[in-house]
Structures are given as C-alpha cells and as structure tokens.
Design goal:
Layout lengths: L1 E4 L3 E11 L4 E11 L22 E3 L2 H8 L3 H20 L6 E3 L3 E6 L2 E6 L1 H9 L2
Parallel strand pairs: 1-4
Antiparallel strand pairs: 1-2, 2-3, 5-6, 6-7
Pfam families: HU-CCDC81_euk_2
Protein name: CCD81 protein
InterPro entries: CCD81, CCDC81_HU_dom_2
Length: 130
C-alpha cells in the first residue's frame, strides 16, 4: 500500500528481489515518487521512481493523524498543506532545506540532487511486519 501526500509525492513499499548465490529473497523496499510542481525543481535532478500499478495508493489520512496528535483534522490538513507549500517555495528560491519525516526518513538536496533517504529503523520495521 502507498500513501499520497498531495503536492509532494507518494510513499510506498514495493517488493524487490535480491539474488544471492543460494537463494532469491523478496524484500519490502520503501520508495518515494516525487509529485511536485516542476517549476519548483528548475535546476534539480531527482530520481524517477515508478510505483507499480498494482500497489494500492491511499490519500493521506488526516483523521488518523489528528487522532494521534490530538489536533482537529482540518488543522492537520492545513499544517501539511502549508508545510509542503513552504518547502516548494524554498526549493524555487534555490534553498535546499532537508524535509524530515519522523520514523521514515529525510527528503534532502545534495549537490542539486533531490533524494529520499529512509532511516534504517524504517526499513527494519517494514521487514519485521507481515
């Protein structure tokens, strides 16, 4: 399953085969597919990740987020939208701040390459789930 963060992109987990000399392993690899206004990314390079069509993509669940931080869903939605808007303005102005996602990873720009680096704990957590 994947989660679409409107104006930013989609986080998903895709199966990937790893071949060893003795066996083939299938691991669950987190990926991020950028979905941002290209005018924000004038001089930036970013990896094009394609999420397979059989992965179910769900919209960001603002109600669930609000239940986990005791804020009203409309306030959570507004905070997410304003944060993404601010981030896109910073990219447009050639500022390259890191965008941290708690327990997931960091969206950063290094040497004009915009990339998502997932925390090891995120990857380990995915592998420990059925």
């Amino acid at each position: 399953q994947g989660v679409l963060v409107p104006g930013l992109g989609t986080f998903a987990v895709v199966p990937e085969q790893i071949n060893s000399t003795e066996e083939v392993y299938v691991v669950r690899r987190p990926v991020f597919q950028l979905d941002m206004d290209m005018s924000c990314l004038q001089d930036l390079v970013f990896p094009t990740v394609m999420i397979p069509g059989d992965i179910v993509i769900m919209p960001l669940d603002y109600w669930w987020l609000s239940q986990n931080n005791s804020l009203p869903p409309d306030l959570v939605r507004g905070c997410v939208e304003e944060t993404i808007l601010l981030y896109s303005f910073q990219l447009r102005d050639r500022q390259h701040p890191a965008f941290a996602f708690e327990n997931i990873g960091i969206l950063s720009c290094q040497d004009n390459v915009l990339c998502m680096q997932f925390h090891c704990s995120c990857i380990a957590g995915l592998e420990s789930q059925d």
